[in-house]
Design brief:
Elements (H helix, E strand, L loop, with lengths): L1 E9 L2 E9 L19 H8 L7 E3 L1 E2 L2 E2 L5 H11 E4 L11 H12 L4 H14 L16 H13 L5 E4 L8 H15 L1
Parallel strand pairs: 6-7
Antiparallel strand pairs: 1-2, 1-3, 4-5
Helix pairs in contact: 3-4, 3-5, 4-5
């Protein structure tokens, strides 16, 4: 990011959420952006993942200038390039755990159904969930387990990078530590 600005138009007038933010993250880096509520962390994440566009400045991710992408190309780029882990899991309650992990692969049309299933099962094991849990529904799991499912889903398309938006803030301290260790191991 180079001098990225993000302004929102509100009833009270314009609001600047990001003010000339510059940031470089190299391959293999594990970084955290910290700040108080309302400081622009989620807005920054939305810029990096192409969910939102900057008002000014330039944004290049993995050699791709995001300003040059149409909305449909941005959606394709996002699906193939970045994984997102949300604070409140964003799992679909009517899908089983394995179906939630397979969903990005289904949308992207990657691999056969059998390969998707096998990959999803492997990812669930990778994040420490037993294969016996695969056909259960998200509401049957604790917050920490649901976040692990979210991590597995974020890894489904072998993304170049993963962005977490307060992914551990709703979890107790011991579960936070385990998830952060998992993320560090994945980076390694």
């Amino acid at each position: 990011l180079r001098d990225v600005v993000k302004d929102y138009v509100t009833d009270a007038g314009p609001f600047r959420a990001l003010k000339e933010v510059s940031l470089q993250v190299d391959a293999g880096e594990f970084i955290a952006v910290v700040g108080r509520s309302g400081s622009g962390k989620s807005t920054l994440m939305n810029m990096i993942t192409g969910i939102d566009r900057p008002t000014a400045g330039s944004l290049v991710v993995g050699g791709t200038n995001l300003a040059n992408l149409s909305e449909s190309r941005m959606a394709q780029w996002r699906g193939r390039t970045c994984g997102v882990i949300f604070q409140f899991f964003q799992l679909l309650p009517t899908l089983t755990v394995v179906e939630n992990v397979m969903l990005p692969m289904d949308f992207a049309g990657l691999w056969s159904t059998k390969e998707r299933y096998e990959r999803a099962m492997h990812l669930l094991e990778l994040v420490g969930l037993s294969p016996t849990f695969a056909n259960r529904f998200p509401h049957e799991f604790s917050g920490g387990q649901r976040q692990r499912i979210g991590v597995a889903r974020a890894l489904a398309l072998q993304p170049s990078f993963i962005v977490c938006d307060e992914a551990v803030s709703a979890l107790d301290v011991s579960v936070q530590a385990r998830l952060l260790d998992l993320m560090r191991n994945l980076v390694s």
